[in-house]
Amino acid sequence: MKYLGIIPSRYASTRFPGKPLADINGKPMIQRVWEQVYGTVDELVVATDDERISSVVTAFGGKAVMTSSLHRSGTDRCYEALCKTDGQYDVVINIQGDEPFIRPEQIELLKTCFTADESTQIATLVKAFDPEGDFEKTVFNPNSPKVVLNNRNEAMYFSRSVIPYVREKRSSEWLNNQTFYKHIGLYAYQVAVLQEITALPQSSLEIAESLEQLRWLQNGYKIKVAVTQYETIGIDTPEDLNNLLSGHKHPAP
């Protein structure tokens, strides 16, 4: 199989304008992401809507594709970039542009969903919440979507709420009685499936939870899930970046 890696990267983030160009120890964030995943795919491009990002990517030796500023999601931006990229590919991998510590092992794990089963339509990653972690600050955090899986390692549902509910146990005991999975926002799609899902209208569940993957589930697509042992760190605000650089947060297995 041939894999195209696409890093969606827009300039006008509401909470952190210019985020892809933020300096992380002498390199812009987008370069950190590129260097982490380069070599794991057959072709790697940055899909952006801003000439400043495109110029920086070109300057460090990367490849940038200009895309519309009107896209509602990274998935939509990925499809436009695919259409503008030469070559024939079987799978597109959507790589978050604000996770500078993504591991190449995570990309390789995502690829196994397709090599092990060529009928896989969409794939993503999850990580089990730490049973020793702070339940209130992790599992109950609506900014950290949860996932429940079936016995075929396919996603049954994603939610910002706590799922599943553990009946007849105090919430402080839930992590010791049930495995809760955190969604890691890496996606991979068969090329034909990517074309189909970007043509779908928003669904009621997607609108309710503000999670685009619910649109795919609600329309009958199957999402294969692989379990990673590695955490990812997303940078959403300048404060997140300051905390990272000051050592308050660091990537951990």
Judging from the principal axes of the Cα atoms, what is the shape? globular
User: Can you give the mean pLDDT?
Assistant: 92
Q: How is the main sheet built? A: 9 strands, mixed
How many DSSP H or I helices? Answer: 9
Secondary structure: helix percent: 25-40%
Strand content: 15-25%
Which class of secondary structure composition applies to the elements?
alpha/beta
Our measurement of the CA-to-CA distance between the termini, rounded to an integer number of angstroms, reads 29 Å
In N-to-C order, the SSE pattern is EEEHEHEHEHEEEHEHHHEH
Low-confidence stretches: none
Counting DSSP E segments of at least 2 residues, the number of strands comes to 11
Gyration radius over CA: 18 Å
What does this structure look like?
By secondary structure, the chain is α/β, with parallel strands linked by helices. The protein is built from nine helices and eleven strands. Strands 1, 4, 5, 6, 7, 8, 9, 10 and 11 form a nine-stranded mixed sheet that branches. The protein has a two-stranded antiparallel sheet with strand order 2-3. The chain is globular and about 55 Å long. The chain starts with a strand and ends in an 8-residue tail after the last helix.
Q: Top keywords for this entry?
A:
two-stranded antiparallel ribbon, 9-stranded mixed beta sheet, alpha/beta, 11 strands, single chain, 253 residues
